[in-house]
Amino acid sequence: MEHFVFGKTPIVHIGILVENIEKTAAAYADFLKVPVPEISITDSYAKSKATYRGAPTEGRVRLTNFQIGPNLLVELLEPTKEPSEWRAALDANGEGFHHIALEVENLEDAIAAGQDEGCKLVQSGQWDTGRYVYLDAFETLKLAIEIMAPRSAEEETENSD
Fold first, then answer.
1. d(Cα 97, Cα 128) in Å, to the nearest integer?
2. Residue 77 in contact with residue 17, Cβ under 8 Å?
3. What residues does 136 pair with on adjacent strands?
4. Cα angle vertex 127, ends 5, 13, to 5°?
5. What are the tens digits of pLDDT across the range 50-72?
6. Which stretches of 3-161 are DSSP H helices?
7. Alpha-carbon distance 155 to 80, whole Å?
8. I want to staple 119 with a disulfide (CB 3.0 to 4.6 A). Which of 16, 48, 60, 114 is the partner?
9. Percent of the chain beyond pLDDT 70?
10. What is the CA radius of gyration of the chain?
């Protein structure tokens, strides 16, 4: 029996790209009958060390999350104008579904597994306690795959400026 390329890793959220996060978040909140959650913005390059297609980028995203039932987190993302996977996908495809997200222990192994299946690493970065990458699987699967992993204690110490 064949196994999913990332093992038994559950999907932790789905990402939806939007042009206007306030408007879309209000629509989701109205539909779900919940308050509008706080909207935040990802860190600048100085903290995120984000790269897009191998080059450093100031591309950021404003985001908010809606928990729908016990098993589904919907992440709304409004990209800034700087180059990023989010901006490129929004410009190319318009608003809507963008990615599934997985959490793994070993990011490098997950990247290699995705690349073995033909996915291309297009963006990477970090936040206070974790790292992420986006793998482009649009040609075959019609989506991106975000893979997230915790940062090691050494990485957190090295990057805690």
1. 26
2. yes
3. 120, 144
4. 45
5. 999 999 999 999 999 999 989 89
6. 21-32, 45-48, 85-93, 107-116, 138-141, 153-158
7. 27
8. 114
9. 92
10. 16
Strands 11-17 and 55-56: unpaired
Handedness of CA 105, 108, 110, 111 (dihedral sign): positive
Q: Give the C-alpha separation, 38 to 117, whole Å.
A: 37
Instruction: Give Cα 68 distance to the centre of its chain.
Output: 18
> Which tokens belong to 30?
């109205």
Each residue's pLDDT tens digit, 95-106:
999 999 999 999
How far apart (Å, rounded) are the C-alpha atoms in residues 59 and 84?
A: 5
The Cα–Cα gap between 89 and 86 comes to 5
Query: Can you name the residues that pair with 40 across neighbouring β-strands?
Result: 63
Tokens 């997950």 belong to 110
Ranges of residues in the chain whose predicted pLDDT is under 50: 1
